[in-house]
Amino acid sequence: MLSLAEPIGPHPGDDRRLMNDMQLRIHITNDMMFFENGYTLSFCDGGSCWIVDPGPPPQAEQIVAYVREHDLKPEAVVLTHAHADHIAGIDDVMADLGDMPVYLAEEEWPMLTDGRENLSANFGAPIIVRATDVQSLPVGSTLTLEDSTWVVGDVAGHSPGGRGFYCEALGMAIVGDALFQGSIGRTDFHHSNHDQLIRNIRNTLLTLPDETRVLSGHGPETTIGVERASNPFLVGQ
What we know:
Elements: E1 13-19, E2 22-29, E3 38-42, E4 48-52, H1 59-69, E5 73-78, H2 84-87, H3 90-97, E6 102-103, E7 134-135, E8 142-145, E9 148-154, E10 163-167, E11 172-176, E12 179-180, E13 183-184, H4 194-205, E14 213-216, E15 222-223, H5 224-230
Parallel strand pairs: 4-5, 5-6, 6-7, 11-14
Antiparallel strand pairs: 1-2, 2-3, 3-4, 8-9, 9-10, 10-11, 12-13, 14-15
């Protein structure tokens, strides 16, 4: 698999788009506290899937139901970063669907088991992820899901090892909490760095074609062109 971004709608959904003869299905779950976007990506019933950033309840329950309904075979949990709202559902997903690799930038591995680092301690309920197979995400490496190839990009700044995933054939980027419609990720957390985030957005994301669809960690879908032209944090970048 390894060879070397506010909710999209307030309710779970299944968005089917045909691009370059590949039909990617995007199932979206949200929680009611952070409205974090948890994604399940697949191409067909009975095929492989990724579970991206499974968040707080009821996301895990909804993800498991969707995977079973479509007879999907989870290959991995893929994480854009390891803040609490993006990892809270991992253990519950694996409890029902079985163990699987967790892909996360190595800089953020300590966040999986430390509530202070993943910010969950701030809410009085520290999250500790029990996953035993954690795999790194080197910048410039690639991940594959079925016939699609995704390049791992550096979008750190909101968190110390933030990663984005870009599939040229699908014209799509998954960006976690780096970039939102009309905004960017917060940089007032410990280990955040505003200048680093702006630099990585400019070098990793704004170099993509304007028509690239952007799937963020919170909020609605947008495009690179829209954000380049109108995002108040990026105009002129």
